[in-house]
Amino acid sequence: MKVHIVHAHSESDSFVAAMKNVIQSQFEADGHEVSLSDLYAKGFNPVASPADFGSRSDPDRLVYALEQRHNYTGGTLAPDILEEVEPVLAADLIVFTFPIYWFGAPAILKGWFDRVLLSGVCYGGRRLYGRGGLSGKRSFAAMSLGGRENMFGERGIHGELVRGMMRHLFQGTLGYVGTTVLEPFIGYNVPYIGGEARAALLDQLRAEVAAIDTRAALPVPRLEDFDDRLVPLAVGAA
User: How many CB atoms lie within 10 A of CB 43?
Assistant: First the structure.
């Protein structure tokens, strides 16, 4: 299996970096081929702009998604985007390691999604969810945050984490482009726990990575449950 890790944390001694190292070492120990994109280390530019395109299908008005299609087909995308796209397209499993900031991913990772998940390649028209351009691939996230686990869930002050505050990532991004989105690993309260508790979390992560093939997937909409107007075929079908 080919595994590609997209890592989004600036500090090499962080807990997120430790999660990345555990994931990489476990997959390698299991005989998988692993590649890594360390976004902060390489100084990845997260800002989508006209500079991403070497040619323009419409020089007067920038429609970013349409120019992604035009430039990918024409081979005129910015080199730093192509460098990120190629391992994603080659991977069987795409892994993301990052801290949760303000109910979402860090800006550098959000910008990676904006620039790298190309229209026409990863999605477009009715090529979404199970029919998306990355269908057949799996995705997995390992995340950390400062909040305690009891602060999340149906009765928690912040609400449900995976299918609530992070739905934009798991359904609206990774599910939308067609990947099978595996249940994420979440390190709660990380800045405030001791070394022993952090080590236990990393041991848990290593065991879960070793058993990745049995990991449950998150539910996403199925186009088969909707008509041509994307209206549900039956009440409750979505």
Answer: 9
Domains of the chain: 2-225 (3.40.50.360)
37 near 87, Cβ under 8 Å?
A: yes
Low-confidence ranges of the chain (pLDDT < 50): 237-238
CA pair distance 57, 164, nearest whole angstrom: 38
Q: What number of helices (H) and strands (E) belong to the chain? A: 7, 6
Q: What confidence score (pLDDT) does residue 235 get?
A: 57
Task: Write the DSSP assignment of 93-109 as a string of letters.
Answer: EEEEEEE-BTTB--HHH
Residues 6+ apart with CB under 8 A from 134: 88, 94, 122, 177, 178, 179
